[in-house]
Amino acid sequence: MNETIDIKELNERISRESSFVDLINQEISKVIVGQQHLIDSMLIGLLSDGHILIEGVPGLAKTLSISSLAAIITAKFNRIQFTPDLLPADLLGTMIYSQKKEEFFVRKGPVFANFILADEINRAPAKVQSALLESMQERQVTIGTETFRLDDPFLVMATQNPIEQEGTYPLPEAQVDRFMLKVVITYPKKTEEALIMRQNLDGEFPAPSAVVSPKEIIRARSVVRDIYIDEKIEKYILDIVFSTRTPAEYGLNRFEAMINYGASPRASINLARAAKAYAFINHRGYVIPEDVRAVCYDVMRHRIGLSYEAEAENIVSEDIITEILNTIEVP
Fold first, then answer.
1. What is the arithmetic mean of pLDDT over 130-144?
2. Which of 54, 96, 208, 258 keeps 20 to 30 A from 324, CA to CA?
3. Over the Cα atoms of the chain, what is R_g?
4. φ and ψ at residue 183, rounded to 5 degrees
């Protein structure tokens, strides 16, 4: 009985604390038409302190989405175009010699911001990719002998173009695993695109208003951690993750030869964190199985290593996730 009362109180508290999510959605919808899944994913990443890898063709409002979110949260935004000639110093910063003072001083790079858009991350060499991924993981940068903490909140949204693979440096699996979510975005609907076209022809570009402070986001993160997740939901998450490692134990024998390696423990952690954040943006104080299913594709799609047999049969990770969700018993 006490647990029920606690859940009720928690639910009311989360409902109050998450009211700013509606304000963010309201402001961002002034600028972005559609792409609700992308907006929800950015909020999940922001509230869970995780980073996002986005795959989609050019022109789908990726840059506009993250710059608008930065404006709404009164945070600093930097866009970095990754190119083959980019160096780690171009990203992190470097030591510059001042002839006037006869000493070196630190010139900080564009990574020192709250929101980073790493555009076409797979166009830059591995050295630059790893420099960014180290910043994402450690939340700090070392230049010369000095170490600098990065701003909080710190969200990296990296994009890669799924069409053009010539002249690219694919991200190693261990580095891709450091992204909390891999979001695949598609074209807008016809009605949405008609509205986008009209706005551009009329030259109507409304600017979003700042409605949330970075401090409120940091406070909301601690509230998200308080969201209740039942043991049955935890078991459900573990069953989903373990079924990618030992599919035969879950009646998924056909995937034995198709999966080279299953999802890492980061998948379990991030699935739970993302499900909590999803419950929060839906103003709920507890996680339900639908929350787990809603974030499952984005958390898992880049963590399943496919074999040549899967490629030969045109099976992608999304097909395997669908089959897993249809097979694993929902609590």
1. 84
2. 54
3. 21
4. -105, 130
The reply to whether 1-31+228-331 and 32-187 are identical in fold is no
Q: Residue with structure tokens 């594709």?
A: 297
CA distance 307 to 327: 21
CATH architecture of 1-31+228-331: Orthogonal Bundle (1.10)
Residue-wise pLDDT for 193-238, tens only, equals 898 888 888 877 778 888 888 888 999 999 999 899 999 999 999 9
CA atoms of 93 and 323, how far apart (whole Å)? 46
Give the C-alpha separation, 210 to 114, whole Å.
15
Q: Name the amino acid, one letter, at 182.
A: K
Q: Fold for domain 32-187?
A: Rossmann fold (3.40.50)
Tell me the mean pLDDT in the region 297-315. Answer: 90
| Distance between CA atoms of residues 154 and 266, nearest Å | 19
Enumerate the domain spans of the chain.
1-31+228-331, 32-187
Side-chain half-sphere CA neighbours of 37 within 13 A = 16
Instruction: Compare 233 and 152 and report the one with higher pLDDT.
Output: 233
What are the b/e assignments for 11-37, b being 16+ CB within 10 Å? Answer: beebeebbebbeebbebbbebbbbbee
pTM of structure: 0.87
Element (H, E) at 55: strand 52-55
**Mapping DSSP to helix (H, G, I), strand (E, B) and coil, where does residue 142 land?**
strand
Q: What phi and psi values does residue 146 have, to the nearest 5 degrees? A: -105, 140
10 Å Cβ neighbour count for 50? 23
Q: How far is CA 251 from the centre of its chain?
A: 31
Which residues are 143's β-sheet partners?
Answer: 146
What is the DSSP secondary-structure string of 77-111? EEEEE--TT--HHHHHEEEEEETTTTEEEEEE-TT
